[in-house]
Every structure is written in structure tokens, then in C-alpha cells.
Amino acid sequence: LKNILSSPEGLSEEQHSVRPLLIDRNVSILSLLLDYGLTLQELVSLQMQHVHFGKNMITVLHNKGTERRIMLKEEDKIRLFTYYKTIPEPVRPRYHSTDPLLVAFDFKRGTFRWVYDNDAPKALTAIAVQKMIRLEVARAQLRKGISAQHLRNTFILRCLERNMSTEEIIKRTGFLSPLSIKRYVEYANQGAKGSTVSVALSVA
């Protein structure tokens, strides 16, 4: 799925022309879901004040008020920073601010969007992320229905496959209770090949 993001296959002329502006953003989105286990809501809620490029770290806020710190691999930090620098400076999110990290894109104008009433970049919405994933899944000819939740499921299952402790998985995912992991443990123990697990693993 990540590989298809860099491919021009199946793109319209308009999409192809702006692809260089979006590749690093979109790959970073997939990586944060698949490799770091963010939820869709956590992803679109990321603000510049939560991003620490110099420390390779992002702070993720949970809707229950808790937070966790995630250390990014160097290559993932570089990709995220490359996306950030791709945004033209006049509409670029400001460091240490409440500006969104992930910015919506205007395909007609060929640039990232700015909300003048808020004097800030326009945040990428959860709906837009799901649409992006759906379109890329179709281009990659993967099974329909793969979503942000499936990508996070894959992250959790991989943690279990590596025999990671329940405490460590809770720390990495933001789960509030071991009970939240129970169903994933059951899938792993049964060697389940049902829809949720098989779909999740198919995007690896």
C-alpha cells in the first residue's frame, strides 16, 4: 500500500501533477496508523505543538485526556519533516502552535488550504483521510473495506506477534485497560483468519 503511493498508476492528469506535494504527507499518514498505532481521531488531531522534530517525537492526545509520547524512526521523522517543508511558507503550520500538522489540499488551486477566518491552515479531516486510504487501496487492488482502523489493528497484531507485554501495548496504543486488548489476544491465539485480521494483515 505504501509503494502504490509513489506510483503514478491509475492517477488522473490533475492528480499526477500535484503528486509530489502529497506523497510524503500520505505515506506519513499510513505510517502513523500502521507503524505507530494511532487512531484516526488522534491522527487528525495532531497539532504543531505536539510535534518535536529535533527529538524525533510526537505527543499523542487521547480523547479521555491522557497522552503518550511516540518516538519516530529517523526515516519516518525525515519524511514527515519533508512533507512539512513542502508546504509553501505563507500557508505552512507554525511551530509550537495549535496549527494542524496535517493540512488539507486544494486540488483545483494546486496548493495547501488556508482558513482566513481562523488565520491558520485548514486541518485534514477524518473523512478526507478515509477517502485517501480508500482510493489508494483501490489503486493497489487490495481488498475493499480497508480503513484506518484496519491499519491500527495490524499494528496491534504485530505487537502481539512479537510477544510484547500487555503493559507495553497499552503504553503504545493508548488503551485504558487490558480488556481492550483481549479481543486481539483471542484472534492471535486462535490463529484467526477472519475478516478483520486477514484484511489487516493484507496491507502489511
Automatic annotation (TrEMBL):
Top-level taxon of origin: Bacteria
GO biological process, one term: DNA recombination
Keyword Transmembrane among UniProt keywords: no
Keyword Transferase: no
GO MF term (any one): DNA binding
Keyword annotations of the record: DNA recombination
Classification via InterPro entries: DNA_brk_join_enz, Integrase-like_cat_sf, Integrase_catalytic
Tyr recombinase domain boundaries: 6-197
Official protein name in the record: Integrase
Protein's organism: Bacillus thuringiensis
